[in-house]
Amino acid sequence: MQKNNEVMHYLFEENQKFRQWWLWLILLFSLITPMIFFDNNPVGYNYVLMILLILLLFFLLELRIKINPEGLYYQFFPFHLKVYMIKAKQIKNIETVQYSPFDQGGWGIKYGFQGKSYTVSGNKGLKIFLSNGRTIIFGSQRYKEMEKALRKIKKQ
Hints:
By secondary structure, the protein is α+β, with helices and mostly antiparallel strands. The chain has two domains: 19-60; 61-155, PH-domain like, CATH 2.30.29.30. It is 31% helix and 35% strand. It is built from three helices and nine strands; from the N terminus they run βααββββββββα. The strands form two sheets. The protein has a five-stranded mixed sheet, with helices on one face. The longest helix is centred in the first third of the chain and has 19 residues, at 42-60.
């Protein structure tokens, strides 16, 4: 992404985390309930530890998207330890989409017959049609800005 010690200029940058209040309420309730009812039961401790690990995972989960003249870079941390790139010349078309996360089985990384999707919250994003025939949906809170940046690099 960086050449000859130059600072890379991004046309678009967005980091999304799981911040839905109801999700955190469910996870915290799942943590507190066994602490009240299980007392000193070892099974209760294991359950609390498991919920704490799930809480940590949700806290760390982050969809990172960056666009520069070379292409779109994305990473769904901690599942992706490296950054993936879609080169500008690989982008055939772009379309704004509205989706239901429940139709896709929730938020996160989803694989289906129509391609992959990377979503964290909300129900809007961009569907990117690639030159190899595949499609990828990226959920975004700033999908209009993202679309503008992608159209700009696609023209170059």
